[in-house]
Each structure stands twice: as structure tokens, then as C-alpha cells.
Amino acid sequence: xxxxxxxxxxxxxxxxxxxxxxxxxxxxxxxxxxxxxxxxxxxxxxxxxxxxxxxxxxxxxxxxxxxxxxxxxxxxxxxxxxxxxxxxxxxxxxxxxxxxxxxxxxxxxxxxxxxxxxxxxxxxxxxxxxxxxxxxxxxxxxxxxxxxxxxxxxxxxxxxxxxxxxxxxxxxxxxxxxxxxxxxxxxxxxxxxxxxxxxxxxxxxxxxxxxxxxxxxxxxxxxxxxxxxxxxxxxxxxxxxxxxxxxxxxxxxxxxxxxxxxxxxxxxxxxxxxxxxxxxxxxxxxxxxxxxxxxxxxxxxxxxxxxxxxxxxxxxxxxxxxxxxxxxxxxxxxxxx
Length: 337
Prior knowledge:
Blueprint: H1 2-16, H2 22-35, E1 41-44, E2 46-49, E3 52-55, E4 61-64, E5 68-71, E6 74-76, E7 94-97, E8 100-104, E9 112-117, E10 142-144, E11 154-161, E12 164-166, E13 173-180, E14 185-196, E15 199-209, E16 216-222, E17 229-234, E18 239-244, E19 248-256, E20 265-273, E21 277-282, E22 286-291, E23 298-306, H3 316-333
Antiparallel strand pairs: 1-7, 2-5, 3-4, 6-13, 7-8, 8-9, 9-10, 11-12, 11-17, 13-14, 14-15, 15-16, 16-23, 17-22, 18-19, 19-20, 20-23, 21-22
Helix pairs in contact: 1-2
């Protein structure tokens, strides 16, 4: 709104100052236009300020008495922080483009959630400002539409140990950093001293969204080779799809699996490089993709497509057609971007 007002004042002054030549006016308008170009992607992390850590009713510390949230470029997670501590706005970093938004719980759960959008503008700066978990309720911009439960959500990551996915219950230090550029937005997370089973490793992740399309690209960098690093899609009992390409494959689900009332249609998909994957199978809470042991970077993509998205995908047939086009591109170009 402030930028729009500034633009209006500048435009009015241009019309009033008739002694200025046309070239000068054109250059000024061009400069103003470039200055107020709205972002096509956005990522943020927002922490509470003005309060203090106190003992809470859930058996862990909570951040009480906070007066406001402050966006920061990076954040080292306090030792007191866990689920439902009211310290990080919507409980972790978020990233979005005009079609969809995502967030990752920056605590032991480490699941990735979907913000379904009814508008094509950036909304994350407003989410959770009018009540800590208000995003669970329908709003003009949309709402949180995915129930992750005990799963990794959509495209989250963990380690499969003895048929159970170990999340991030034991980590020495966690740090998140935000990066917004003209062409993309990313969340970088470093997990130092992650203990899963009998192994302790450092893990770095980068989650990147681009101006067009719904997908996020994930890059995982483990400090050493261990078995069982995995990702997946939460299993809500709807239709499951799998398509194996020459190099890349995808798994996907489609059906009534949202938190909207009544539940409506959501498609979720995960693209993975077959050379990096040991096995794809069903776990206790999700459809799993389990990677081979490696110390090299692991890359995959995930996406969510909600039927209430403006000009979005409305049918299962169209959803699968879209996935097949992406699969063909991946097998031809080895990249969606």
C-alpha cells in the first residue's frame, strides 16, 4: 500500500511538472516501476519478541508474553524450542509463489505442510499474525490444508530405522537461513549432530521455490553415508499413482485429503532420481522413498495442487497429465528448472 501511494504521488508530480522533458519523465517512471516490482517468490522465518521462556502445561518450556513477531534472515533455534512453544510464527520457515505456499516445522517433527492459496499474491507475511494458529481456519487468502500427523508431510525428510521413520528428536544444533532473490526463494537448514538410530551426522537441506509452477526443489547434503535417509507423502488413503521413467520417477496421491470443510481435492507428488533411490515402499504413515547411502547431494522435487487455487488443477486426470509432462522434462533435461 505504501509503495502504491508513493507511485501515485510520483505520477501526479510528473503531470504537474510540465517543464520536464518527455525523456526525463519516461526514465523516472521506468526507475519507479523497477523499484516497486513485486516479488514472485518469497521465503521468511519470524520469531517472537518481548516475552520470556517459562514452564508450560505440556511438560516443556513455552515462550510467553511475546509482544510481536520479527522477521530475521537467520535463526539459531533455542534449546527450549519444540512443538507448540509459540516462539516461531506458524512454527517454522515458510516459502511461497503465486500458486502455493509451504512451511516446515522447525522442531523434532520436521514435517512439511501446505498452505493452499485462493489468491495469487504473497500472503505469508500476514499468516499467523491474528492468532498463533489462525491459519487453520478458512481466510480470504486460503488456509493450512494438509494434516501431516506423525508423517513427514509432503517431501519432508528423516531416516528409516527398523521400519520406523526417525524425525529430528535428537539434534545438537539447528540453524535456518532465508534467501530471497529475483528468480527464486530458498530456506537453508543446517542440522548439526543429528542422531538417528546408532548414527550421528550433520545434514544440510535447501528448499527452493521458483516463480512458476507449484514445485519445491529439495537438496539434502549428508556429512557421511548412512542407510535409510528418506522422504515421502503422507498417506490419507486416497488414490495412489506411480510412474517410473528412464531416469526419474514420481509417486503421487489425489483425492479428498484436505483440512478444508468439507474436505476437497488435493494432489501431491514427489519426483525422484532412480539412481539415488534404494527402494520405494509404504511406511506406517506415508508412501516412502528411501535413498541409497551417500555423502553426495540428494535432489528431489515435491508439489501440492489444490482445487481451490485460482486457475488451478481441478481433476485427477489433469493432475496426472501435468505430472507426466514434468516427468518427461526431467528425463530429457534432468531438471525442472
